[in-house]
Amino acid sequence: MELNKEVKHGARKSRMFLNEVYFWTDTIKDWKHLLKQDQFKEIILNSWNFLVKKKKIVAYGFVIMPNHLHVIWEMLASNGREMPHASFNKFTSHMFLEELKVHNQNLLQEFISNNMADRNHRFWQRDPLAILMDSKAKIEQKLDYIHLNPLQEQWNLTKDPEDYKWSSAKYYASGVDDFRFLSHYKDKF
Prior knowledge:
Elements: E1 21-27, H1 38-53, E2 57-64, E3 68-75, H2 84-103, H3 105-109, E4 129-132, H4 136-148, H5 169-174
Antiparallel strand pairs: 1-3, 1-4, 2-3
Helix pairs in contact: 1-2
InterPro entries: Transposase_17_sf
Organism: Splendidivirga corallicola
Protein name: Transposase
């Protein structure tokens, strides 16, 4: 089943299908650093945890950066009438909105627009990137990319990948799953 509808005018045209593993990148609208605050990262983790427990997804690896995230995941089943990635974006957006209403009205204003026909706020950019992971080598390359992302000079969030709390690097280095929702990619490949 198709997850992303094709978008006109040079969009990525990313598609995801059930029972396939994808490297997925989702970005905060206008590259704002909303995810710098830990409570927003926790919302993301809670959503993934819920979707794993409901057997809608399998999560193999991730990193949450200040303005985007990368995840390697597999869609197992639709969540009601929508696919899991849509449920993820809808739930996290709703929770971001509630958090900002209570704790940061000024930041909320940056995500509200009267020009959007479909809603009055948007947190995620449209058309996230989905790349099929059809080999062990591709997954390993993307996991390395994910886990090294916080070390990049532009971010400089940690010195060692496994010390960055908001990624699966520690899980792959030690086998300890602090998030309680990760599966090892070798279980699939």
